[in-house]
Amino acid sequence: MAGNARKKGHYHAYATARMKQLEGVELASFQARAFALVVDFALASIVFVGALVALFIALNKIPIIARNDRHITIELDFFHNWYSIIYLVLFMGLTLYVGKGRTIGKRVMRIRVVSVAHPRLSLWHCLERTLGYGASALELGFGFMQYFTHPNYQTVHDRIAETIVIRDMHTRRIERSSESL
Fold first, then answer.
1. How many CB atoms lie within 10 A of CB 169?
2. What domain count does the chain have?
3. DSSP letter for each residue of 119-132
4. Which domain holds residue 42?
C-alpha cells in the first residue's frame, strides 16, 4: 500500500502530523488560563449589561412602550436561565473564533488555544470548547483540576474540543511548520 493511502476500515491517525508540529511548545500555566477566564467572564457581563441598558434606552424612546407600566426583569445569571447560557456560549465561542484562538483575556495573558488535530480552529471547535466549560465545571470544578493530572495540561473542555492552550510566543513557529506540510 502506498505511503499516504488510506485503507478502508482501518484506523487513520489523522492528528499525527499536527501533533508533531506542536511537539515541544510551552503550555500555558493554570494561573494564566484562570485569569484569562475571569477576564472573559467579566467582559461578557459588562457587554451584556451594556447591551441591555442600550436596549432599554432605545425602547423608552418608542412612545407606546414608554407609556407602558409593566415591570420587566432580566437577570444576568449565567447558570440559571437559558438566555444567559446561550449568550455566554455565543460570546465566548465567537470571541475565541474571531480572535483565532485568543479571547480578550487570553490576549492579556499572552496565551492561545490551538487545535491538536487541525491547523486552525473552526467555529464549531470554538463553540464545542465553550460548551465543554460546563463539563469542566461539573463535580465542583473537577474538570478544570484535571489540568494538574493530564500530561499535556488539558482540562475536560480541552479534550472535548481536541485543543491545548499554549504560550502565544510559539504561534509563528507552528504557523511556519504547518505551511510546510
1. 12
2. 1
3. SS--HHHHHHHHHH
4. 26-179
